[in-house]
Design brief:
single chain; mainly beta; Neuraminidase; four-stranded antiparallel beta sheet; about 50% strand; globular
Length: about 280
């Protein structure tokens, strides 16, 4: 079921200018719990809410999903700006033409216990990176997978029982960035040719690495020590930048978590990124 706002809570969409470290409020709602901003090539932001997808203009303008089931907060825009790929509540990934038309299921049927959660598309638009969640008895197993955007055979990138999430392509199309508990509590990693490299190692719980299109930095969400999973409505959620030289910059602290910055949220020119806060 889609999440809803608590009494007295708001959804607030912000854009951060990275060079100036300045943020501006773009849109606020006390009616719709919207999540996970993406950018279109023309600078328009899109978010999900109530199982639907919206453009953010003067208000929220619904984007027709072409018969796709209700969606969650995992969606990405193709590099050519013509298609949005979404994760639906039925566990599958779909391609939705932004100019209108029927949605197309991308993923294969891997059984009722397997769900696909989309996080990235390769820079050339040919491949999607997703998290495959599978129940094996009482065990919840998540791994990084890829699949051709046109449909085809899945490729399993990681094969272990560590909790993985947030798989997203870097701008070179070679590395896939993700968060994982393989080093204890969640930290940021990247993987290529089966070789994983750890990118962060600190006292906080770090999730959802989003590489800038120009490769200059990685934006990510950082939770307090001891946070389990990726919860909603917690205090001291920090947005950070991991710079090319390894420096970590703190940008802001907020009340939020789930839905704040789940998906690629950089502007096309790498000058800004978007996020959502959920103040009470």
């Amino acid at each position: 079921m889609p999440r809803s706002l608590r009494p007295g809570q708001r959804s607030e969409l912000y854009v951060v200018d990275v060079a100036r470290n300045e943020r501006r409020l773009v849109f606020s709602s006390d009616q719709v719990l919207f999540e996970a901003p993406n950018w279109l090539a023309d600078g328009t932001l899109i978010v999900n809410g109530n199982g639907l997808l919206y453009r953010v203009a003067d208000g929220l303008e619904e984007i027709e999903l072409g018969g796709v089931p209700a969606i969650n907060n995992d969606h990405v825009v193709s590099p050519d700006g013509r298609t949005v790929y979404v994760s639906a509540e039925d566990g599958h990934l779909y391609a939705v033409p932004l100019e209108g038309g029927a949605g197309r299921r991308v993923t294969n049927d891997r059984g009722a216990g397997f769900h696909h959660y989309l996080h990235g598309v390769s820079p050339d638009g040919t491949t999607l990176a997703y998290i495959g969640l599978e129940w094996v008895g009482e065990r919840r197993i998540t791994n990084v997978w890829t699949i051709p955007a046109a449909g085809g055979a899945d490729v399993q990138v990681t094969d272990d029982e560590f909790a993985d999430d947030g798989s997203e392509y870097g701008p070179d199309g070679e590395w896939i960035y993700f968060n994982s508990e393989r080093a204890g509590q969640a930290q940021l990693f990247r993987i290529k040719d089966g070789r994983a490299e750890q990118l962060t190692s600190d006292e906080r719980v770090n999730w959802f690495p989003h590489p800038a299109p120009d490769g200059s930095a990685i934006a990510y969400v950082s939770f307090p020590f001891g946070t389990e999973g990726h919860p909603a409505d917690i205090d001291d959620v920090r947005l950070r930048l991991l710079l090319h030289d390894g420096e970590v910059r703190e940008l802001t602290s907020l009340f939020g978590g789930q839905g704040t910055m789940n998906v690629p949220s950089w502007s096309p020119d790498s000058s800004s990124f978007a996020y959502v806060a959920y103040p009470l």
